[in-house]
Specification:
Length: 406
């Protein structure tokens, strides 16, 4: 993992030029925040902490000034307006008792009832990301990162009133620290540094694996808390033209030790013409709208190793196992799906137990091959998240990164 210092140093240079704006004055001008908002701000007050090797204190006024001084899109400006502070501290691990420091901040978060969203703890790295949420609004994000190299321990605190539908855009970039640039100049909208897969293919897409404590209820409502911050697969393209389709699809994905969970939102400009005919499970779908999730747990990029989970707008389900000998009624009934037609399309939720899938025996996070595709019967469009093309080049399947199977 890398924390690319030149972005932070550039930021510090800008802050030096703006040093005459006192932080206390900036807060006073805004007015005292209420108790809920205050809990989103974590004081870096670990006893006897050494001087930080990197220190960033971006207040609301500084964020506004920097945003105005840069060429930012309207979307980036909108996100920046939600923020009241971005704070970063980095320490050389040789100068601190890293275990005590991590425990100190974990206890502070637990006391104020922060929720751990992401936790990765293996021999190479430690990452923990927590949210302070009140009534579906996140008032704070706090990340603890200990990369393998360089020997640093990094703390990131983002404060503001973060709309639930935008949280994932912020967290996406925090979760990629070490695989991406910490690019505060671009309102934390960094680009992922491509991880080389076994085939060296650069066209496939990546999705970060996020483990949750509270799984969603499979009811086709998509209102569970985990969906508000889940990584999202989007920008589906036509299998033939490779261009984005008109009626787009988004898929959110999380997992627990028991199952994998997916939430599909399938836009349709003519929802009354959504087609469905199959009214029983375990029957192949023909001439109707359908979505398909495929997973290659061993990351072989071989079509014969992909298990496919399909559902139609009625929530009827069909599975095609990588090993066809597993296609038994007992096994095919283990997974769950629910669907609903809405005003602008249709939605699907899926729950896929791990015990339906072969998987590597490992104590370290691994990559798995995944893909999402949708058939829209009315238009005949076959759209894919990570496009395999008409030749079905499964080396172009997407990658599910840093998943730790049970």
């Amino acid at each position: 993992m890398k924390l690319q210092r030149h972005f932070t140093l550039m930021l510090m240079f800008c802050l030096l030029g703006l040093w005459i704006i006192p932080i206390d004055q900036t807060v006073a001008e805004k007015g005292s925040p209420d108790e809920i908002e205050k809990k989103g701000l974590i004081d870096f007050d670990f006893p006897d902490a050494p001087d930080a090797t990197i220190e960033v204190n971006l207040t609301e006024k500084l964020i506004s000034l920097l945003t105005k001084s840069m060429k930012t899109s309207s979307e980036e400006e909108e996100i920046a307006k939600m923020l009241t502070g971005i704070y970063v501290r980095s320490y050389d691990r040789g100068d601190v008792d890293e275990d005590k420091m991590v425990q100190y901040y974990q206890e502070k978060l637990k006391k104020d009832k922060w929720e751990v969203l992401v936790k990765v703890n293996d021999s190479d790295e430690f990452v923990e990301i927590s949210l302070f949420i009140h009534e579906d609004v996140a008032y704070g994000v706090f990340a603890i990162i200990m990369p393998e190299k360089p020997e640093e321990i990094i703390f990131v605190n983002i404060v503001g009133s973060l709309a639930s539908e935008r949280i994932s855009e912020l967290l996406e970039n925090i979760m990629k620290i070490g695989m991406a640039e910490l690019d505060i100049f671009d309102t934390l909208k960094s680009k992922v540094e491509v991880e080389v897969n076994p085939i060296g293919n650069i066209n496939s897409k990546d999705l970060i694996a996020v483990k949750v404590e509270n799984p969603p209820k499979i009811d086709g409502q998509l209102n569970d808390k985990c969906w508000k911050t889940a990584p999202q697969a989007d920008n589906f393209t036509h299998i033939t033209t490779q261009k984005p389709v008109k009626d787009q699809t988004t898929v959110k994905m999380v997992y627990t030790d028991k199952a994998i969970y997916l939430a599909w939102y399938n836009l349709d400009s003519e929802p009354k013409k959504i087609r469905f005919s199959t009214k029983k499970d375990h029957v192949p779908f023909v001439n109707e709208d359908v979505v398909c999730f495929s997973i290659d747990t061993m990351h072989t990029h071989n079509s014969n190793m992909r298990t496919k989970f399909m559902a139609n707008p009625l929530g009827k389900k069909y599975v095609q196992f990588a090993d066809r000998t597993l296609n038994t009624s007992e096994l095919t009934d283990r997974w769950n799906a629910a669907a609903k037609i809405v005003d602008d399309g249709w939605v699907v939720e899926m729950e896929i137990p791990w015990n339906m899938l072969g998987r590597p025996k490992t104590t370290k996070p691994v990559q798995m091959g995944i893909n999402f595709n949708r058939k829209q019967q009315r238009t005949g469009e076959d759209s894919w998240w990570s496009n395999v093309g008409v030749e079905k080049q499964y080396s172009n399947d997407g990658n599910w990164l840093k998943v730790l199977p049970p």
